[in-house]
Amino acid sequence: MASQFSSQFRLSITRALGHQLAEAFDELAPAPLTPENLDRLDEQAEAERLSSRSGVYQLYRRGEFVYVGKADKRLSGRLSQHLRKISGRSNISPSEISFKCLYVAEDFSAVAPEKLLIKKYKADGHIPWNTNGFGNKDPGQRRDRTALSADHFDALFPIDLDRQVDGLGTGEHQLADLLAKIKSGLPYNFRFQKDSRFDAVSVTVPSAALTADAVFRLVAPALPEDWQISALMGYVIMYPDKGADYPSGFRYYRGVTVTEEQPKRVPAGEAGTLFEDEDEDEDEEDPQ
To answer: Where is the GIY-YIG domain (predicted)?
Structure first.
């Protein structure tokens, strides 16, 4: 019981750790998110013989602090994922992004340092990307028919279908092999249902420098009659659902026909509750 001359003291170790982490970040200067700087991270870790290359990081866009994340294995690997993701988006460029990071010893990771930082910075009104779906995994088919809020990351920065697909080769491709190359060559997820008929179909690729839009225009006519390719704001899907419309769909490839649509929106923040922001591990594969 408190009185004028006595009270109860509660020591919050986690709060103290959160403040110390924030202070350590304050001593760092943001660096451009480039492959060269990410290579330097690994070189630094090697030179300093760090026992762990995991840690926490901050992202900035045009100098604005937008995101706190973690890397359970390698900071450079997780940041490389973000670099690749942003490179495949409209309305944003990797040149706008910078980062800071802290290596965290393995025995300290159990206290979830990124959660301590998120709690602190949310209270200060920072890190908008921690609540808009930036770090989410592919939510799978259960979320394909969800309308996005106007402030969702995918609504603000939709996938760029004019982005060139990496790793394509010219000439005739078995459709199944071509789909796998498209998936690995895009900086956003291309999720599709596998079908044994794809092994018996060939598609001729006229150039190794094709955009995603151009490749999907080649693939769609080779699909079975009831299939379509649907470009949603955050990823592309391909299923036997020809004629289906998706709330966040903006381009559909149905045979030789390509259709543009206006994605549906809900008020800012409303649909975001459906996407619990979850910073994915850098070695995790996208679901098929």
So the answer is: 52-127
**Residue 215, domain extent:** 141-265
pLDDT tens, residue by residue, 68-109: 999 988 999 999 999 999 999 999 999 999 999 999 876 565
Whether residue 183 is predicted with pLDDT greater than 50 in this model: the reply is yes
The CATH number for 106's domain is 3.40.1440.10
